Amino acid sequence: MNSVVDSICSKKRLSFDDGVNLIGSHDLIGLGTAADRMCLELHPEQYRTYVVDRNINYTNVCTSGCTFCAFYRDNDHGDGYVLSNDEIFKKIEEAISLGGTQILMQGGLHPDLKIDYYVGLLRTIKDKFNIHIHSFSPPEIMHISALNDLPSKEVLVLLKSAGLDTIPGGGAEILTDRCRDILSPGKCSAGEWLQVMREAHMLGIKSTATMMFGHVETQEERIVHLEKIRQLQDETGGFTAFIPWTFQPKNTALSLSAGNVTDSKVGGFDYLRTLAVSRLFLDNIPNIQASWVTQGSKIAQLALKFGANDLGSTMIEENVVRAAGVDYRLSKEEMISLIEDLGFEAMQRDCYYNLLNRE
What we know:
The protein is of the alpha/beta class.
């Protein structure tokens, strides 16, 4: 651990082997101290941030068949749906009335929704609302590409021209094809996920990056994931933030095949350790976001001392994690209180981490 602290103090980039050693460390306090120090160097300001937005799952119909997902439904399932435009508009109106500045639209890989659907939806939203659209993760982009026989770059160009502002980092899971073959055999490969992000960044579309961990991956594969993210950020500079979050096993095919659901759930120790290592390893990504959605408010608050500088979204609506049996909720006022209890000022931000005036 001392060598890691020395590397941070000397501004020396951590190697892959450094990362592997750290992700196996049991010195949680040492890791947290080092990550907090790095966070304070990157963010010496006396505030920490949050964003007010709404998740809109426009469809739950998906052909991917991810073994970790409890939300999706097959196309012929009775509970499958596609929201109407009016339903989506109502959700956006509610979000704006609550101070929301952006929407996160994500859905399943629907076999019947062509590019015209997405282009039309984006244009109509932009015509009706002054709202930032942070939508369509790389698997969705690759699915639209295949469904319409269009290069992924052309799909991104069409979506951007219709009103897409930024794209979320979902669907990354773990960026090794060994893991993806088990977790999401019908979803894009690790290389394709990175390709979409590279193309988006080159088109001026910023994005976040995520990592879902605590399932079939090895600790070393977590570092492989971080290294791929870091390499692409070196190339493009297009990632605004990194969000690590933990697999939620309840109601998923993966947990049923694994046997004991409870034993497969990642706890606060491993979450905070992985968060701290993420901050230390990803020296070129400015923001690290805590995941209160999967860890709850107290661990999320601790995350702000383990390398995170952002509490993420108030999530006026969240359905995917809830389908896996986790239902943590936080109001804007509670998020502000969590930040202020640590001695920081709580500041609302936009998707680019620009500060907004707080009433």
